[in-house]
Amino acid sequence: MHDSKGDQPSSVLIIDDESEVRRLLEHLLDRNAFEPETIEGGREALEYLQNGGEIPDAVLLDISMPDMDGFEVLQEIQEVDHPPITLILSSQDREKAKLRAFELGAVDYITKPFNTAVLVSRLNRHLERERNDCDPFPGPWVPATELAE
Amino acid sequence: MISLVSLVLSLSGISVTPLPLVWSSSYQVQLGRFVGTDAPLSYILMAITIIGVLLIIFVGIILGKSWVELHRHRRDRAVRRSVREGFYEQLTEPNPAWESLVASLSDVERDILIEELSQSTQLIKGSKTGDLKRLGETLGLRDEAQAAVESNSHYRRLWGLKIFIQFGWSADPEWLSETISKDRDEGEAAIRVLAISPDRVTRLAGIDLALQYDALSVYGMQALHRLVRADPAPLLEQLNRQDITESAILAQLLRVLAFSDTFTGDVPMDGVLECLDHDSPTVRRAACSVLAEYGWRPDVRDRVDLILSDLFDDPSREVRIAIYEMLGQWDDAAAQAKLAKAAESETNSRALFTIAALLEKTDQSIAQNATASLRDEFEPWADVGEIGPPLTKFPE
Asked: Chain B partners of A27 at a C-beta cutoff of 8 Å?
């Protein structure tokens, strides 16, 4: 997956305390032409983002982490300049958790265990949409009815 | 003792000169007092030497072991990384070549791959689970699990069943029922294995397994629910035989039934209806929760109508509440009329409140009566003051 700046692959920051998840995602995203970075805990990730670390194009964020709740991390991420799109990847499948994540600015909520192909596809779609939204020279607006024709 | 100490010291490479007995007796006394004994000085020094030597040996062993462990850990880490990379590499391929990967592994690497595979089965779902299953089979895990279930060890059998569940491998119901022991953990795990490919045969086998026990654990109930939820007809047939004597398991089977689909064909509901007359209030309550889901069946409605006045007189408040909830769930004019009738004779405020909540849209007066009844019940011991308007729904 390449970003709008050219042929550079989209960078994805994986924040998860489970090493198996980090490793699997890192490999999966790397194989799908992303540029993955992994961080073990929420606090460490925030320090990285708030202290001049490179802001990624997307973040894959776990909710249940020992040092800092994923929701808090999500909230703080939204306050960064040009916040990255954030997808939650959690084993919590409760409606309340999902609603809270969306309220705090997550663009998607994927539950563990996850389908690897679907995860990559959703990530691609969100990044694509984000790029189109930020496109400084968008094409002319075409009504949906005309598109259908 | 002295010769033993000398031997230890000489073996340790420490030369000991015989103690010069030129010390004055006052030094000896002082040292003796210092270590809290009146033993001769030579003995004290020897004891100190022995302890020192033993400490050195002990520290040496620890340092040596640590070094070996560190070395092993470094080597394991490198091997683990290489195995993991090979595994992920194949996993992300459309058609993983597991056979060649497995063939290239040593025993240690194979164990590492099994660990990685085991973790991945808990992380990945979808089409890739088929690839993981295939890897499990290539590694021989299915055969190992089968052998483990057939073994004499309880823990090996549980491990084998766990592997079947983890990889979603179905097993022959007959083999499973004959192989496992009477232990409940094993039986429940076997029910869960049967739930991997639910059909009539596995459902009947799973119900038979469940009936071996006086009661199931929560895990067992979940496993049974998973097995029968799409077609609970075999469970209804079992209840119709009315040969379950243990009320705990009977109530649990009814609970499972209450949370299952209701597409059961023409299977009679006699077994469940008979449970309304059971000695145990838990069973009667559970039967109500099942019947609440079958309000669309005329035979069920007719049978309940015949005994409804008796049901309203049930001595257990919880059972009466379950009956009201059943009528509330049927939610038609006939059921609502029966609920309103029940409110006339109901004296318990909580039960009355249930009726009020169920009838809130149609009969406000019942809700008001319920509120007044609640006030009467509370005021003698608590200053609740004005309760306010009648409650129309339960607080969340």
From this structure: 85, 88-89, 92
CA B82 and chain centroid, separation: 35
How many residues belong to chain A? 149
User: What is the C-alpha separation between B211 and B205, in angstroms, rounded?
Assistant: 10
Q: For B16, what's the count of Cα atoms within 13 Å in the CB-facing half-sphere?
A: 19
Contact call for residues A71 and A43 (beta carbons, < 8 A):
no
With 70 as the cut, is the pLDDT of residue A5 above it?
no
Rounded to whole angstroms, the Cα distance separating B349 from B367 reads 11
| Distance between B96 CA and the closest CA of chain A, angstroms | 14
Query: Is A117 in Cβ contact with B84 (below 8 Å)?
Result: no
C-alpha span between B366 and B349 (Å, rounded): 11
**Residue whose structure tokens are 């823990």:** B155
As beta bridge partners, residue A86 has A59
Say whether residue B396 is in contact with chain A using an 8 A CB cutoff: no
Pick from A20, A31, A116: CB nearest B126: A116
Distance set, CA B371 to CA B255, B375, B388 (Å): 31, 6, 9
Beta-carbon pairs below 8 A across chains A and B:
41
Q: How far apart are CA B49 and CA B4, in angstroms?
A: 12
Question: pTM above 0.80?
Answer: no
- Chain mean pLDDT for chain B: 86
Strands A85-90 and A108-111: parallel
Residue of B nearest to A24 (CA): B88
DSSP string, B133-200: HHHHHHTTHHHHHHHHHTSS-HHHHHHHHHHHHHHT----HHHHHHHS-S-HHHHHHHHHHHTTS--H
* Structure tokens that stand for A16 in this block: 């998860």
Q: Would you call B128 and A115 a contact, using CB atoms and an 8 Å cutoff?
A: yes
Block residue for tokens 């257990």: B316
Are B287 and B272 in contact by the 8 Å Cβ rule? The answer is yes
Band (B384; pLDDT cuts 50, 70, 90)? very low
User: Interface pTM (ipTM) of the complex?
Assistant: 0.76
Residue range A105-146, pLDDT digits in tens: 999 999 999 999 999 999 999 999 988 876 545 555 555 555
B residues 84..103 contacting A (CB < 8 A): 84-85, 88-89, 92
